[in-house]
Amino acid sequence: MVELTCPICSADTPLDGEEEAGDSILCAFCFSPLKMTVKDDGSRALVDDS
Ligand SMILES: [Zn+2]
Fold it and tell me: How far is the CA of 49 from the centre of ligand 1 (A)?
């Protein structure tokens, strides 16, 4: 399981691991709209997409 930190509520949001850059994700805790981004080093992060 992959978990990334929500930029809104700082909760660890579980992902199924199939997400790609640009995919929209809803935080499971605060329900904020987030977007998957992939950094230059290949690591993934969530950004506010509201
Ligand atoms: Zn959240």
Answer: 12
> 2-48 maps to which CATH number?
2.20.28
Query: Comparing C-alpha atoms, which of 48, 28, 29, 27 is closest to residue 37?
Result: 48
pLDDT tens-digit map of 1-50: 789 999 999 999 988 888 889 999 999 999 999 999 999 998 899 999 98
Domain ranges of the chain: 2-48
In whole angstroms, give the CA distance from residue 47 to residue 43.
13
Distance between Cα 16 and ligand 1 center (Å): 16
Using a cut of 0.70, tell me whether the model's pTM lies above it. yes
Tell me, in angstroms, the distance from the centre of ligand 1 to residue 34's CA: 8
